[in-house]
Amino acid sequence: MNNVNNDDTTSSTLSANTETSLLKSTIASAIIAVMVLVLFILPAEYNIDPTGFGEQIGLTVLAKPIDSSAINVGKVENTTTQTQKDVVTVLVPAGKGVEYKFQLTQYQKMTYQWQTDGMSLYLDLHGEPAGDATGYYESYTIATAKEMSGQFTAPFTGIHGWYWKNKTDQDINVTLITEGSYSVVGLKQ
Fold first, then answer.
1. Alpha-carbon distance 74 to 62, whole Å?
2. Helix or strand or coil: residue 92?
3. 2 phi/psi in degrees, rounded to 5
4. Same domain flag for 21 and 99
5. What contacts 100, CB < 8 A, 6 or more positions away?
6. What is the count of structural domains for the chain?
7. Count of Cβ atoms closer than 10 Å to residue 120 Cβ
8. Within 10 A of 170 (CB to CB), how many other CB atoms are there?
9. Are 97 and 174 members of one domain?
């Protein structure tokens, strides 16, 4: 019988220890939460710094309003605001290659459509960054085709256009229709 009473005493002691431990943990958590609020959150979010600690470690700067006129995120300066449409016929001589180019500012768009008078041409739609003296160019499309149409958005400011190579023994005419904000550079052989 003594064992039964001992078990009850042990059980009530464990229950009291668990409740005390839970109470201590809750109080400790509340104290830590208040410290985090006062030392970090109030200075960083609301510029309220009762201890001065937030200013010492630079958190109060985060809560200050930002001068939006000083930020230039995603702003695109468009130097050519007028949209134009051009139609040109380009002769690609037998066994030779030619380039036809446009000057575009970064993110400017140009719609295009071109077709040959019958034969397919090797083509490379590519661009060269403005001011680059290394000879670097980036190809966007390399193919062999009789026609092509689409919309092109310049990934960088520079010269963009087509290189067509005629691998046949007959001259081929390409009719090119473009529309957008660009400057025509023209034919390069």
1. 22
2. strand
3. -60, -30
4. no
5. 88, 90, 161, 162, 164, 174, 176, 186, 187, 188
6. 2
7. 15
8. 11
9. yes
Residues 104 and 154 in one domain: yes
Residues 30 and 122 in one domain: no
69 secondary structure, DSSP code: G
d(CA 83, CA 153): 14
The whole-number pLDDT of residue 56 equals 83
Q: Which two tokens stand for residue 29?
A: 């958590």
What is the per-residue pLDDT for 57? 80
Task: Encode pLDDT of 52-103 as tens digits.
Answer: 887 888 777 666 654 444 333 433 344 445 789 999 999 999 999 999 999 9
Residue 102 and residue 183 in contact, taking contact as beta carbons nearer than 8 Å:
yes
Residue closest to 106 by CA, chosen among 88, 80, 143, 84: 80
Give a yes or no: residue 19 inside a domain. yes
Residue at 37 is within a domain: yes
DSSP string, 109-148: EEEEEEEESSS-EEEEEEEEETT--S---EEEEEEEESEE
Residue 56: domain span: 2-65
What pLDDT score was predicted for residue 62? Answer: 66
- What are 129's two structure tokens? 């960054």
Query: The CATH number of the domain where 183 resides is what?
Result: 2.60.120.510
